[in-house]
Amino acid sequence: MPQYVAAIDQGTTSTRCIVFDRDGHGVGLAQKPHHQSFPQPGWVEHDPLEIWRNTLEVTAAAMAQAGIGADALAAVGITNQRETTVLWDKHTGEPLHPALVWQDTRVDALVAGYVRDGGRDRYRARTGLPLASYFSALKLRWLLDELPGARARAGRGELLFGTIDTWLVWNLSGGASGGVHVTDVTNASRTQLMNLATLEWDEDLLREFDLPPAVLPRIVASSGVYAQARVAPLTGVPVAGILGDQQAALVGQACFRPGEAKNTYGTGCFLLLNTGTAPVHSNAGLLTTVAYRFGNAAPCFALEGSVAIAGALVQWLRDNLRLIASSGEIETLAREVEDNGDVYFVPAFSGLYAPHWQETARGIVAGLTRYANRGHLARAALEATAFQTHDVLSAMAQDSKIALAELRVDGGMVVNETLMQFQADILGVRVVRPRVVETTALGAAYAAGLAVGYWADEEELRSHWAVDRHWDPAMQDERREVLLSSWRKAIARSLSWRD
């Protein structure tokens, strides 16, 4: 009898595989980064073939570390960087162009045209999303418009579109030799092409964006058996779960009840609040998205606040400014000073996401004096993540009328205790880190395991969640308001930098 479930976690900067046991503990893990390409300012690209090769490599390595073969796996689940857009040849499996990453802003002019004609929120009622370069629809439109012959070939059914989940499932299930072309409701809800009321592709939107239906994958539940893997090392293993990375973290944090929320601190920062089986439309700049759908059960929805730059700011300080030699040094440097020295860092490298949605914003450092040093810059960079989270959580409370008692956190930055304490301080609520911090991969494993009966139900999954550490707020209200007031001034100065 299979004893484990594998999860492929394909993220913005790396791909990893984790093998989980029945208690939700990892028994094998492997990870490999992939190349980040920035061909022009604001353009961000990945090589889909490199990602596919890395997926097979890390899966084999994780299984080897766990000492198992494919026969020991009940299922494999996939979680992925969302919105990142791939277009490939149905008959050869060759991508026509590098993947356009979710951070890519090359469609800003297209976005502006649609905004002029009907406003930024013209599609929000149907899709839960404002018009922004973030989502997949206009990325696909750009590829079809810019690549010679692509639009005609797409109309003839020769090309396939997908986010990274779709690309991986298609390749795992046979690729050009009968690969299954699907995406789950969470990823579909991030394309700006799916109608939240029907959970189907919206024909009117396809016409308005001038996109041929023939390129689109079939929309499926987040938990269900889609195919059997047909490539080693997973040959014969059911591919049974798909969740966008942030929804996967929500599931991995066992936030199954309305009002429960998590924040993931990765390349970006993503806060999701479970709102139950009815979508809550935002008046405060948040996204309405599908949280998950398990089998034939009713879908659950979430409010989401997306921050483009969180951990990526630390990487930028390391790689571009060379202020630190490794990401782990940022906390040591920040602890050299007692506070931020009145320095504020707004990392609007590709505009600001929730709740501002300003593509024309750009990054700034404000409040510099000769007193400021590299420690103040490091602290300001960490605090930028916490300030942005505060803005999202405030908008979430406004929309949902729910005041959170605690915030569950995960992602690579939660090991930074200076950041976690400041996050609790600036929010004024408890911040909780779970014992298993690999919640994104765990959520994908949970979805796959539920589909094949490896786990019984949500309550069994909830029983696995346990606290590792929590941080309580210790900041005076007056101090908090001073910091937030200065942060708001810095945000105001970053807006409309580009005409």
How would you characterize the overall build of this protein?
This protein is an alpha+beta fold. Helix content is about 35%, strand content about 25%. It contains 16 helices and 23 strands. It has helices at about 50-65, 110-120, 125, 135-145, 150-155, 165-170, 185-190, 205-210, 245-250, 310-320, 330-335, 375-400, 415-425, 440-450, 460-465, 475-495, and strands at about 5-10, 15-20, 25-35, 45, 75-80, 85-90, 100, 160, 180-185, 195, 200, 220, 225-230, 240-245, 260-265, 270-275, 285-290, 300-305, 345, 365, 405-410, 430-435, 465-470. It has a 7-stranded mixed β-sheet with strand order 17-18-16-15-21-22-23. A 6-stranded mixed β-sheet has the order 3-2-1-5-14-13, sandwiched between helices. Strand 2 and strand 3 (about 25-35) form a beta hairpin. The radius of gyration is 22 Å and the shape is globular. The N and C termini lie far apart (about 60 Å). The model has no long low-confidence stretch (mean pLDDT about 95).
- Average predicted confidence as pLDDT: 93
Which of globular, elongated, flat, extended, rod-shaped describes the shape?
A: globular
The helix content, as a percent range, equals 25-40%
Return the structural class: alpha+beta
Percentage of residues in DSSP E strands: 15-25%
Count of strand segments: 23
Taking the sheet with the most strands, its summary is: 7 strands, mixed
What distance lies between the first and last C-alpha atoms, to the nearest angstrom? 62 Å
Rg of Cα set? 22 Å
User: What topology, given as strand order, has the largest sheet?
Assistant: 17-18-16-15-21-22-23
How many alpha or pi helices?
16
User: Unreliable runs, pLDDT <50, ≥5 residues?
Assistant: none
